[in-house]
Amino acid sequence: MRSGLRQMYCAAGPDSLTAGKPWRLSASVVVLAPRGLVPENRELGNTASGEARQDYKVCLLRRGARSSFMPDVMVFPGGAVDAEDGASACQLLNAQADDLDAVVRCAAIREVFEESGIGILEPLSAASRLQAAPHGGRSAWRQAIHKDPSQLTALCAAAGATPATSSLLPWCSFVTPDMEHQRLKKGGFDARFFVWPSPPEAAEQLAEALADGQETTGLIWLSPDEALAAQAAGRVAMAPPQWYILRELADNCPFLAGVAAYASGASRALVRDYPIKPYPTQLEESEIAEFWAKKSPGAEVAKAPVMALAYPGDEKHPVFPGPPGARHRMLLSGEITSGAGRYELQRSEVSSIPLPLKEVMQDWRRLAKL
């Protein structure tokens, strides 16, 4: 299983097949909790003007300062898919060995528990049994799974539960751009993101969620508005994928009860079904000036370079281009690699992309099973 996953090449562009090393598969979960069920963050909460528009909070973890990749950046719980996740999917879900979706979902649930202590299990009440289970409670189980991912199977047996994989809503997948992929020693990621709108029954474990103190050093709950405002003010660092997801939630999902319907809606087909692999694109001087006029009136454009990354559906995306004039891109400036940059999303409605998606995705799945 490990060799198969490590050979995962993303078919988001022809160059992906010849870049020389595989993209690593990873899985993350955007955990959403009703306001009032999780602690308020007095330092970073309510940084947006007025009250936050959302009736829920998002779980954010701070990566360790010594992390080799984007230290101190705020991320969602998640991490690399491991070989043992394939065995867990087969044993716990009766999945086939080549069921990549089941493997990724198992990995996502394992990572959430390992990094935050939140158990996305079926039944959900089973998570409370872990305190009385062998191995010394929830904290000990987290350490055991950190050392050996296959312990997820033992955890489920002790709790009398299975991973609640069907409760994870597919949201999007981000593929590390070629320039960054080549720079990283182990290569970049094909990062799959899910959203989990937590039910009221999860209140106890949501309130007790903590960072693992190893890969992550802090855990906070912020609404999308609060998180975006904190990043804009330079109070937290955030990578473009996390910022993009929070931006979409802030703009389209004011209520937790409506997240599931929005996630599966036809309007999200472009973001949900096409792998988002960014490509650098050239900006006109007028576009750069407009960017800085919004962010910092009076800034000297010559001293403030701006990068534009085209996403699927943008007219300048080389693999999944939209019609002339279509926009789906991020404008970035500042310390991008540290997550401290200034971001802006430009997006116009794109109803279709003139590309045979079916054939491309078939190639993607075929490559995933190499």
Automatic annotation (TrEMBL):
GO MF annotation, one: metal ion binding
Keywords: Hydrolase, Magnesium, Manganese, Metal-binding
Domain Nudix hydrolase span(s) in chain numbering: 22-244
GO cellular component, one term: mitochondrion
Keyword Manganese: yes
UniProt KW Metal-binding keyword: yes
Gene3D superfamilies the UniProt entry points to: Nucleoside Triphosphate Pyrophosphohydrolase
CDD domains membership: NUDIX_AcylCoAdiphos_Nudt19
Cofactor: Mg(2+); Mn(2+)
PANTHER family: ACYL-COENZYME A DIPHOSPHATASE NUDT19, TESTOSTERONE-REGULATED PROTEIN RP2
Protein's UniProt name: Nudix hydrolase domain-containing protein
Organism: Polarella glacialis (Dinoflagellate)
